[in-house]
Amino acid sequence: MKVKEHYDNHLADFYSWMIGDFEKGKNSFKDFCLSNDIRPDKTGLAIDLGAGSGIQSIALGEIGYKVKAVDFNSKLLSELKDRNEGLPIESVRDDIRNIKTIADSPVDLIVCCGDTISHLPTFEQLDKLLSDCYDLLGESCRLILSFRDYSSALSDTQRFIPVKSDDEKILTCVIDYFDRKVRVTDLLHERIDGEWIQKVSSYDKLRLETDDVIERAEKVGFTVSKSESVSRMVYLILVK
């Protein structure tokens, strides 16, 4: 299944439940930005690619940015709008690959978090997205990426990852590794009218490795100002 179909038909229905405490996630990203001196500067404009239900967008709005929140899923963007209380956030339903038609340059900041870049179909399209971001950013402005490092393959039962559960839902993620991609299967058991119903959907991601992403970003012209890894999730701050 294609990524958009997976979100539209499966993942969007329980995405916000899956990511957990929204306020905690929003405040964590806000603290990350402020601790790295990321604040509105020249234009005050930020673009949030793959905005989802708005963790990064609302954090950036609270910091003082004017935000364009881009996502291809209308349900998640609707949740973002419901959460927004007067912040200058414009929701844009579009593919992140169309970034150059979404905003005029220059912008202060672009963020693409939550493993969004791995959803691109090919590494060539990752290169183009990095290049487009570079072109849109003003001089000395920044791109923040977060993504999961898939360099070390999980094997056997390690491939079955318990994501979250409560009295009504149990979510397990199963990962299969290939040379250039990983196949992710979201296996949801949901209690409906007293019966447990299984819902399953799979989609492919790029098999990203930190050194390779950095090399691609540097080839475009970015300089890495920060690189850290927390529980296999990589956070990069790239400067034009």
TrEMBL record:
Keywords: Methyltransferase, Transferase
Single biological process term from Gene Ontology: methylation
Top-level taxon in the UniProt lineage: Bacteria
Transmembrane segments: none
GO function terms (MF aspect): methyltransferase activity
Pfam families: Methyltransf_25
Domain Methyltransferase: residue ranges: 47-137
Protein name: SAM-dependent methyltransferase
Native species: Fulvitalea axinellae
High-level lineage: Bacteria, Pseudomonadati, Bacteroidota, Cytophagia, Cytophagales
